[in-house]
Amino acid sequence: MQVARSTALDFDVVADLLGLDFVDPEHMDAFEVGYKYATNELSFNVAGFYYNYRGLQVSVYPPGKLAQILNAATARIYGVEGELRYRVSPALELNVSAAYVNAKYKYFQNAFGYVECVDPVACGANYGFYDIFTVDASGKTLQRAPEFTATVG
Known about the structure:
mainly beta; about 60% strand
């Protein structure tokens, strides 16, 4: 399956007073395979997936500005997820789920990194705030992509 997220405007101070900085569309090739089993008492689902992104849209937070959306060059995500439900009685149902995700930027040389300004003399009024710098994030984990997640209920 191919998916695209539309082009967006980055409205940082009304796009730098109508200089209008457009964010390119995000494209993704998505592949998933899975298995499902269910009865009244028991259900089991498992799936594996692979996503290949081009122009992935990411959020950055420059100091003193509004959040901005930029395009990372390329990224890929793959993993497996599963869930199990067991109905002990009409009044009690047990659930457990887990997921493993490996999410990396394949190529993202102009990513933003943040470092806290911790020297009160050097930082002055910016003490405790974060400075931004450019970093090569190629091969690094995507933002907001935990490797393991699980629930029990």
